Amino acid sequence: MTFSIKTRQESIEKLKHGELDLLIIGGGITGAGVALQASAAGMKTGLIEMQDFAEGTSSRSTKLVHGGIRYLKNFDVEVVADTVQERAVVQAIAPHIPKPDPMLLPIYDEPKATFNMFSVKVAMDLYDRLANVIGTKYENYTLTKEEVLEREPQLKSEGLQGGGVYLDFRNNDARLVIENIKQASQDGGLMVSKVKAVGFIFNGEGKITGVKAKDLLTDEIFEINAKVIINTTGPWSDKVRGLDTAKKLIPQMRPTKGVHLVVDSSKLFVPQPTYFDTGKHDGRMVFVVPREKKTYFGTTDTDYTGDYEHPTVTQEDVDYLLEIVNNRYPQANVTIADIEASWAGLRPLISENGGSDYNGGNNGKVSDKSFDQVIDIVSKYQKQEVSRYDVENVLNHLEDSLAESKENPSAVSRGSLLERSEDGLLTLSGGKITDYRKMAEGALKEIQRILKEEFDRTFQLIDSKTYPVSGGRINPANVETELETLAKNGIEKGLTKEEAEYLAHLYGSNVTKVFGKIDETKPVAGLSLAETIALHYALENEMALTPADYLVRRTNHILFMRDTLDEVKQGVIAEMSNYYTWSDEQKEIYTNELNELIAESDLSLLKEGAK
């Protein structure tokens, strides 16, 4: 199987002709999950993504499949049970991607602390029971203050009471997306990036029957016809819904921005992921995570109303995170000059809890604040001071008296919502990466019903709990051993142990195809043999169309390999230019795009201002 620019051209031609059973708008983790299950069920499936796959949000997470232990502070057992159980499913279908990595939770004696030593043990015991890890090597345990400091000597000792350690998983978010996309393509789905939905097509009854799409590589506008269309665009969900200009739109989404900063592990050393209150009594928590000889930390969780395509790290974000990290690790003295890379991403949060899979709706009680808002807006409507739309907007954003404060973006529901508009557009929004398969499964049941009842098309859905993503043909109970065995093939062909193991963990069972390129490949100038075969695989099998696609989302070069990036990028640009026969102008455009991305990740402008 290939998944290349040639595949893209062939898929676009097929999208132009005939009618799909299902068209998916949005190629992040939600759309990728829907695409995999729909294609595997035999539906004629297409997916369009206006950027690269995972570029908008799904490559900008905290890069953990997090269990949500903090919800247990309020005994929100259902949330955590769903999360940890689904996490196990994801690990089973993509065993080379989420990896167990126990989390340290230091406990400080502070006002408004999430946990104390007693409550954290109660929460961890319940968490283990929900995660079904009691009696395994991943069962939780507590540490004394001295044991915590022995493990992380840079941690602040003042007020430290001890700590807890519980199971969590690290994740490669963008790789999870591309492996779902590749599997969908292998099963017959038409998956294309850099194609944007610019409008809908309607029949005489006002029902949506297709999409007007624009190929952003050629500027060609073409039409795609489909029986069912689903919007899985995350933070862009309201914008896509707004393409249907016949009706006024009541916003559903409340995107928040999360920021992460990367430093060398020699500057801030943590032996394992660490999770703690900010110490600012603002109800937020921060992760500090070791990864590939680096340490990254975040996040900020602030409301966002700017450019969705290019959320950026601001000075305020940096100041906030540095203050927290330097307070918790006073010996580190991290400054903006130490930051090697950064990323900012949007979370597709739903602005109310009513559609939440986690919270199960609410009890119908409205907070005093919302009650007063309703009285006020209705009074104004009676005086013709506001429109009916204004009233509907207030009514659609009522605050549950039991819900967490809407003033705190960290507290907004992480639940998902599936709904269908009057003209037929399905929208699947909200959720977390951990829940992507479950969200897709729910959407597929509704799509299956629509195709049967309205189009007399019958499909048998797969058991998505046991259907592996591309590269996932590995026994989930024996991942490390199997990856080591796969890596030996690369070592025998001349790669170093470190190179072969890195590629095995990156590509899973597909690494045999990557190693298969060794005998016929000469290293490109500026690239090792391992890097050259990885790049060729990305061009031929992962639809990497630009240097940024490869260096950010097919690999983690820009984020976690800054030391070698400047040398590697020249080889990548040269080889991609060769492969795609770019003109000098095209090569310059992609080079400038990459350099701007690197400068943004480096925080070059902020660093200049700090001098």
UniProtKB/TrEMBL annotation:
**For the FAD dependent oxidoreductase domain, which residue ranges apply?**
21-351
PROSITE patterns named among the record's database cross-references: FAD_G3PDH_1
* Residue ranges of every copy of the Alpha-glycerophosphate oxidase C-terminal domain listed in the record: 465-587
Q: Which family does it belong to?
A: Belongs to the FAD-dependent glycerol-3-phosphate dehydrogenase family.
Q: Which UniProt keywords apply?
A: FAD, Flavoprotein, Glycerol metabolism, Oxidoreductase
InterPro entries membership: DAO_C, DAO_C_sf, FAD-dep_OxRdtase, FAD/NAD-bd_sf, G3P_DH_FAD-dep
- Required cofactors, per record? FAD
Q: Which Gene3D superfamilies match?
A: Alpha-glycerophosphate oxidase, cap domain, D-Amino Acid Oxidase, subunit A, domain 2, FAD/NAD(P)-binding domain
SUPFAM superfamilies linked: FAD-linked reductases, C-terminal domain, FAD/NAD(P)-binding domain
Q: Which GO biological process categories is it annotated with?
A: glycerol metabolic process; glycerol-3-phosphate catabolic process
Q: Which reaction is the catalytic activity of this chain?
A: sn-glycerol 3-phosphate + O2 = dihydroxyacetone phosphate + H2O2
> What is the scientific name of the source organism?
Enterococcus quebecensis
Q: What is its EC number?
A: 1.1.3.21
Q: What name does UniProt use for this protein?
A: Alpha-glycerophosphate oxidase
Mind listing the GO molecular function terms for this protein? Answer: glycerol-3-phosphate dehydrogenase (quinone) activity; glycerol-3-phosphate oxidase activity
